[in-house]
Amino acid sequence: MKKFSWRGLAILIFILGTAFFLAPLAFDGLPGWWATQKLNLGLDLKGGMQIILEVDTAQIPANQVAGAVDNNIEIIRNRIDQFGVAEPIIQKMGEKRIVIQLPGVKDLEAAEGLVKKTAMLEFKLVASPEEAERVLTSIDQSIKMNVSRFPALAELAKKDKALVDSLKLEVDSLDTTAGIFRSLIGRGEINYEIPQSNVRLMNDLMADSSFVNIIPAGYQLAFQKLDLQDANADRPFYVLKSAQEMTGVDISRAKVDFGSSSSTDPRTANKPYVSLEMTREGTRRFERVTSDNVGKRLAIVMDGIVYSAPHINERIPGGRAQITGSFTTSEASELAILLNSKNLEAPIIPISTSIIGATLGSDSIKSGTKAAIIGLVAVMLFMLIYYKLAGLFTDIILVFNIGFILAMLTLFKATLTLPGIAGIILTIGMAVDNNVLIFERIREELDAGKNPRSAVDAGFKRAVITVWDSNLTTLIAAAVLYQFGSGPIRGFAVTLAIGIIGSMFGAIVFLRSMMESFMLGANKKTMSI
């Protein structure tokens, strides 16, 4: 009975594992669970998005600037990680700037919005119909007293004939007409609705600081989230009480759920929504708010936009709630990510957003691949000519080692970048060093008069110690580069480390097994080395 070989099992796992993770790169039409194992390419190879931000530190003490920038980086990193971008590069540039590189991002607007949003979540009561009408009347009275303070209202009304017609106003008598603001707003079933033709004007008004100042104290105006599936529909509009009943601090966890198709609730039936779980303190506050305001509506407001405003039918214990609305799955996921991350500690100012096209990546891949092939062929020819059959075994192992690097990058969902390709090219040169050490030791033993089997045993025994020492020091250097480097430097360190591990396994385990199987026989007096 043949003795069980751990070495053979290790080689089999090495070959099958490499082939398994390389298959999606070479073949199409694989099963879904297999085909998803794809090698991620970096921004320089695949294209994507680069955003440069500057942290506004005007209101922060000088000794806290560095901490605020670092904290913003961590918050942005957490958001991007949850967004699902493979190996993003997020790093500090100078004292106050942040560089973000997102390789392979397709939804550019969503990614940009996710990075820049402050994600201020608030729970506010919707004003009663009587209160809302009083607020609107008060605003109209203030406008009537001096309409010239609101150029957005006067100028846009004069320029937009459709708007003038819809308001049935005489342009010349605009500043003496009562009820201008109220006439912009229609009545919905459960809230106000701004006709689509008036939304632009309302947005301009609400961005005008003079207009904000005439809103009665204790109240605020807010649009409902835009329905992307029907962007031309009338826009729901709310008069809210400005007091915060709860904030995002009271949320412990947010996640995306999908309503059952058999649900009787039209807000969630077969639709994505966001489930909230409160903190211990948040649970107490939520129970108090719902208990004290039965019959009223509680608006869930994100960055000044109402996402939903459900009725409070009864006291709600347990600290659980839902944010429903006209969500797509990606919108619900984005909202959950924002809720699960902290608010930015200091405001950020967008400096630039650039899109890196795939053409540059294609050229880079071709150049890198060409360099790798030239280096590989040169090394393989040298080994074959100088070490003969032993050199051929080295060449075979070298090809497997390159495949092993790509397979491990796929397995760990790492990203291949141009510096990573440089690491692979360097590995090609370094991989044969281990074999050269072993071959030269074997030659010395053969010159001393030993037979091939004894020479191989002694050569491996003496050379392996040197192989371990030399590769261990390089691994330490790669670990330091990964720990203290960022972006491209980390990519280089990862490919270098994987290549070193693969080349050590190839030299110590794979090479010896091949030599014993094909070069050593019971009565062999010579060997091709």
Question: Can you walk me through this structure?
Answer:
- About 55% of the residues lie in helices and about 15% in strands.
- The protein is of the alpha+beta class and about 525 residues long.
- Helix 1 runs antiparallel to helix 14, helix 15 runs parallel beside helix 17 and helix 16 runs antiparallel to helix 17.
- About 30% of the residues are buried.
- The strands form 5 sheets. The chain has a 4-stranded antiparallel beta sheet.
Shape: elongated
Across the major sheet, the strand order is 3-4-2-16
Computed CA radius of gyration, to the nearest angstrom? 33 Å
- CATH class of the largest domain, anyone? Alpha Beta
Number of domains: 3
Identify the quaternary structure here.
Answer: single chain
